[in-house]
Amino acid sequence: MDWTSMKPATTLSLPDRLSVDLERLILDGELAPGDRLPPERALAEHLGVSRVSIREALRELENRGLIDRKPGRGTVVLSPGERSGIADRIGEAVNAASAEIRDIMELRAIVEPPIARITAGRARPRDIAQLRELVEAMESESAKDRYAELDRAFHQSIAQYTHNPLLELINEQIAQQIAPSRGSRYQTRARRQVSSAAHRRIFEAIAAGDGDLAEAEARAHVLDIADQIALADHGDAGADSPHPDTHPHGTHDQEARA
Question: Which residue stretches, if any, does this entry annotate as coiled coil (predicted)?
Answer without folding.
Answer: none
